[in-house]
């Protein structure tokens, strides 16, 4: 990785949201950055900010083959509404799908590795920085998230790290953004259908992910995606 993460943090660490995106996508990271999006419950906020800066920014959408139909439909809806012109769909290959089968039942870490981590690592190999929609308000491993971090071979940028649930909601209202269809059924963090449940009022948004499995992250944000030594 040729980008100097410490330099980026010193120069842009005080920014967030659209200001941070503009500074990086139009500036230091021009042509070297992609956005990753699940097109989930809160994704419209980051994608709207990205579209305002540059709708041709690459947006990587990881289709694990286990997504809700509603997520696939929502992806097309947001793409049209926001004018995103460079959504790249990434899928596991045949071998990974064969190996993954129904591993989500007994070995969700391995399932996530095959359906998410490996395909995404291949897709982002040409980028030096990845933008994501993580927020400290999600809790769990995200409580101490910074807006710019060294992701182990790639710079991780989280422009919404400081945003509260109320700020996200206010932005949806202000921009009249469409909601993921499952939000109306109390799904507040939406991934693959076997590992996503609705949450009760007052529960953290991500409490519905891998409920009862002792797992809170899929690995795409916590493992090195720089491919060095990844054997992918
Ligand atoms: S979220 Fe569940 S189904 Fe999706 S890749 Fe991970 S373990 Fe498999």
Could you describe the 3D structure shown?
There is one protein chain. It is built from seven helices and six strands. Helix 2 crosses helix 3 (43-53) and helix 5 packs antiparallel against helix 6 (108-123). It has helices spanning 5-12, 17-28, 43-53, 69-82, 94-100, 108-123, 165-175, and strands at residues 33-37, 59-62, 87-90, 129-131, 148-150, 155-157. It has a single domain (5-220), classed as Rossmann fold. It has 232 residues and is of the alpha/beta class. Iron/sulfur cluster is lined by residues 64, 66, 104, 108, 111-112, 115-116, 191-192, 194-195, 218.
Q: Which key terms come to mind for this protein?
A:
single chain, 232 residues, alpha/beta, Rossmann fold, globular, binds iron/sulfur cluster, phosphoadenylyl-sulfate reductase (thioredoxin) activity, Rossmann-like_a/b/a_fold, metal ion binding, iron-sulfur
Summarize this structure briefly.
By secondary structure, the chain is of the alpha/beta class. Helices cover 34% and strands 9% of the residues.
Mean pLDDT: 90
- State the share of residues found in helices, binned by percent: 25-40%
CATH topology grouping: Rossmann fold
- Reading the helices and strands in chain order gives HHEHEHEHHEEEH
* Widest sheet: strand ordering: 3-2-1-4-6-5
Report the count of strand segments. Answer: 6
- What is the SS-derived class? alpha/beta
β-strand percent reads: 5-15%
């Amino acid at each position: 990785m040729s980008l100097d993460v410490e330099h980026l943090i010193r120069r842009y660490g005080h920014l967030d949201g659209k200001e941070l995106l503009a500074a990086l996508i139009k500036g230091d990271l021009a042509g070297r950055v992609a956005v990753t999006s699940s097109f989930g419950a809160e994704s419209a906020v980051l994608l709207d900010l990205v579209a305002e800066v540059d709708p041709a920014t690459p947006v990587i959408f990881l289709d694990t083959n286990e997504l809700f139909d509603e997520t696939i439909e929502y992806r097309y809806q947001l793409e049209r509404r926001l004018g995103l012109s460079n959504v790249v769909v990434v899928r596991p290959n045949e071998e990974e799908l064969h190996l993954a089968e129904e591993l989500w039942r007994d070995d969700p870490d391995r399932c996530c590795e095959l359906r998410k981590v490996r395909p995404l690592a291949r897709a982002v190999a040409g980028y030096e920085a990845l933008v994501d929609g993580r927020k400290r308000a999600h809790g769990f491993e995200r409580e101490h998230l910074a807006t710019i971090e060294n992701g182990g071979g790639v710079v991780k940028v989280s422009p919404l790290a400081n945003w509260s649930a109320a700020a996200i909601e206010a932005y949806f209202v202000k921009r009249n953004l469409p909601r993921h269809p499952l939000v109306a059924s109390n799904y507040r963090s939406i991934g693959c259908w076997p590992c996503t449940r609705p949450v009760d009022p007052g529960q953290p948004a991500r409490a519905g992910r891998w409920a009862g499995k002792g797992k809170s992250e899929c690995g795409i944000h916590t493992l090195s995606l720089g491919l060095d030594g990844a054997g992918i």
